[in-house]
Amino acid sequence: MSTELRQPESSPRPFRLDVQLQDLLQKPAEPRVATRPIIAPRGEKLPEPVFPHRPELLTNDGLPADEHGSPTDPYKRHWPASLVYRAMKGWLFPYIKSRVLPGDFHPIIAYLFTEWKCNLDCHYCWAFDNRVKGMSEETAKRSIDWLHSTTCRVLALMGGEPLLRPQFAHKVVDYAAQKGFWVYIPTNARLLRPEVIDRLADSGAAIFNLAVDVVDEKPGLPKALNAVRSYFEYLVRKQYRYGYSVFFNINICRNNLEDVKQLTEIAHDHGIATDYHINESPMLEQPQFKHLDVNSTFITRDDWPQVDATVDWIIEKNRSGYKMVNSIKRLNDMKDFMRGKLEPWNCRAGQNNVIIRVDGTLAPCFPMYSATYDWGVIEKPKFNTQQLDEMKQDCQTHCFSTLNHNLGYCYDDKRVIKWVLKQAGRAFQGVSGSFED
């Protein structure tokens, strides 16, 4: 979040980037939404998914639960060789290929924005626009086929809310999983009914990322766990049947610090991981974002001590073995980022990760979704390493992407070798804490 937005006495700038870079990335001469199709149509459709692929997994018999329907503690999870191999095909093998193949564009993870609409209005979030039509079946199919021709084997459905069209999401997940992709589904869970869980899990979803910020809904923070508690309980129980994983995605705001702690403990009690973000204002100007000037979620200078204490509490939980996506270093970096002092962190956007917008155009990373700069379209990428490097000199120090940071963190071979050996020492049954040096 920019320093300007944290100081009420200042007039807020509607974006975090340097003005010159903002102007370059938002050139008005070539609008992205053209009057003709961006990709030439070929009339392709996603195949109808088979359901169920595995009818024996639809039963709830034998799942761990107490009288409230919650998992009991402790119970052990065994990762069979098939699921270990699936994760290695998704992450490890593409990483190795990216290190040995010539060229600079070797995506490992792709973010497929099937929607740019959302059913909730979180006051910190500019990442939706309910005027934008969702991705077509042809664009989704051709995107997956194109990605399959590259090194990429991790596909994240993105939004907005990716489950606004559950039948469409089912088709995308099924097609991608059948082609060998490790599929990641982020959702606010309001539409994650048990029948949707079963269909997505049966198709081969590997991760469900539940975005929750509070236990009970608060003004400006509608992503409340109790609003989806029954879906959450069902999702957690059924992971032991289907083999996917679940984690909480929690955005640290000025008005949810106690909720952050409660959600952390709830996740730990259920044996799932957590992923933390620090509240950020838009990186680029977002004309559709209506909560910029008055926003109860934005962190102010006066909130820094309380946020620091919350981050320190999370770090202690990480050290004690709580499962977390964030490394301890990255959690500590939140304090610097909050104060506008973040250092460059080897961002791999446009090299090892890629954004596919709803219309099939490409961007290097999520904060650049609204940029009109031409990085190409599916099947015809136009990423230029020199342009990306020049852009990242500014944008890296204004961005706090957890997954992209973890990806950049991996581009030190010693770290990866150490991590793989650590996993192998546990027979690839998982480790506590986080991805750490």
User: What's the total count of β strands?
Assistant: 10
How many domains?
1
CATH level-four homologous superfamily name? Aldolase class I
The shape is globular
What structural category arises from helix and sheet content?
alpha/beta
Measured distance between first and last alpha carbons:
27 Å
- The tally of helices reads 13
| Percentage of residues in helical conformation | 25-40%
CATH architecture: Alpha-Beta Barrel
Mean pLDDT value? 85
- The CATH topology name reads TIM Barrel
CATH class: Alpha Beta
Question: Uncertain spans, ≥5 residues at pLDDT below 50?
Answer: 1-13, 29-36, 66-75
Explain what this protein looks like in three dimensions.
The chain is an alpha/beta fold and about 425 residues long. It has a single domain (about 5-425), classed as Alpha-Beta Barrel (TIM Barrel). Helix content is about 35%, strand content about 10%. It is built from 13 helices and 10 strands. Strand 7 (about 355) and strand 8 (about 360-365) form a beta hairpin. The chain starts with a helix and ends in a 12-residue tail after the last helix.
